[in-house]
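Lab manual, section 2.4: Encoding a predicted structure.

Procedure: take the sequence of the chain (262 residues), apply the prediction step described in section 2.3, and record the output as structure tokens. A sample record is shown.
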Amino acid sequence: MQELQLISTGKVMAGGTTQPFTALALNENGNVEEYIVKAFTKKQLLQNASVAKEIIVCELAKMFDLTIPEYGIMNCALQDLQGVYKDERIDTLDLGAKFCSKFMSQYPIFTNVTSNIFLKDYEILNIFAFDVFIFNVDRGGYRNKPNLLINDNELMIIDHELTFPFINNNYRQIDYEQNLSSYQYSKHVLIKYIKSLNFKDRVFNEFLFNLNSLNINRLDLIFDKLEYYNIHFFDRENFMNYFVWAKNNVSIFERYLTLMTR
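Recorded output:
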């Protein structure tokens, strides 16, 4: 997790439900890059810990060998936001650290029209299985947003604040397998591609290997960083209990992934 230094703000991006804006920022390597900055509201952070979930999923994606944009966090002064939003919007915003992802201009948004010839079997299987693991309801879903970028060589996953829905401000003891059984996989943007594969090719060995190898200690360090930057995430134990359960129940994931894609 890197801390970015704001240089200048740009404009609000069209179509984003969180009204993200572009900004130029200095990264930890001393390079000036363009980033997409998500300015979540106080209510969103209180109910969903949106910044923390974005960061946690980015770090998990690295462990599962999935491609994400370079990301970081950035603090914006009130006067910086006044150049982007109207006062009534600013009044609703949390003024803590903002989640930022590098603007990937060379990666168009995944669509059915442009993507068929580029898809790799192992890549779509890994992304689908990863979304089941993080309970991502926003790659396709009811809003039909792909939240995937694509170029000639790979798919890149983005936008992960709507994950781990059972970890929120009403946290209680959770039946993880019950949640798996009710995951809305039929609305996933990649499910039709997976079901078009020969049955023998619908294997999730790479994902299952990575899940079995999940580094729990490395995950724990993420929460140390979140605490250091005062980023709200409810309770560390809520997340860690699930990660330990998932690592210890790889066979359950294999069974549900097979059922979902048969």
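Check your result against the sample. Residues 54 and 245 are 21 Å apart (CA to CA).
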